[in-house]
Design a protein that fits this description.
Elements (H helix, E strand, L loop, with lengths): L7 H4 L28 E2 L7 H15 L5 H14 L8 E2 L2 E4 L6 E11 L9 E10 L3 H15 L2 H9 L3 H14 L1
Parallel strand pairs: 1-4, 2-5, 3-5
Antiparallel strand pairs: 4-5
Helix pairs in contact: 2-3
């Protein structure tokens, strides 16, 4: 089913995302079930780990009113103390759980200049997938992390993201990669 072919109630999910069926925690998950073009920042301006987290959280809280900006930032900073969520190849997946949400939330941000995020390979992070889960959703949280990790491993995807011009272009790349896996 093409999103344009679906009736409006059937095709609109979280913040207007196009999806054929709502994501259920026990079904095969797609990143596009929890991410839409409004939750993409094409040009992060922050230069430090903390300021990147602040920028990501502010953008998410602006679009998702249930997110308490200060609480989420605290949760993410606490998680970073356990070990960096910066993984290899310029990707970081900051993540945490909040009590006051009832569904997975995601946001994608890109820093063309890169940010020292304490990544395992010592390289700057450019692509950031922020994932926020309900406090009681260990299974869904882990499935989403695994899904994002699979997508982020594709070198061609990462390179294309760095060349994309707009957030819509970035969203289309994520959709295309999401459909492959």
């Amino acid at each position: 089913m093409n999103c344009a072919d679906a009736s409006p109630p059937a095709r609109r999910g979280f913040l207007g995302t196009c999806r054929q069926t709502p994501y259920r925690y026990n079904s095969a998950m797609k990143i596009t079930d929890i991410l839409n073009h409004e939750l993409i920042i094409a040009d992060l301006t922050s230069k430090t780990k903390k300021s990147v987290l602040e920028e990501l959280v502010s953008h998410l809280a602006h679009h998702e009113k249930r997110v308490d900006r200060e609480e989420l930032l605290r949760v993410l900073l606490e998680r970073e103390k356990l070990g960096s969520t910066g993984i290899n190849d310029g990707v970081a997946i900051p993540h945490g759980k909040l009590k006051n949400i009832d569904e997975l939330l995601a946001l994608f941000g890109r820093s063309t200049g890169g940010v020292d995020f304490g990544a395992l390979d010592g390289k700057p992070s450019h692509l950031f997938f922020l994932l926020v889960a309900p406090a009681s959703s260990a299974g869904a949280h882990l499935k989403a992390l695994a899904r994002i990790s699979r997508i982020a491993r594709n070198e061609s995807f990462r390179e294309s993201c760095m060349k994309a011009k707009t957030r819509e272009d970035l969203f289309q790349l994520i959709i295309q990669e999401d459909e492959k896996n």
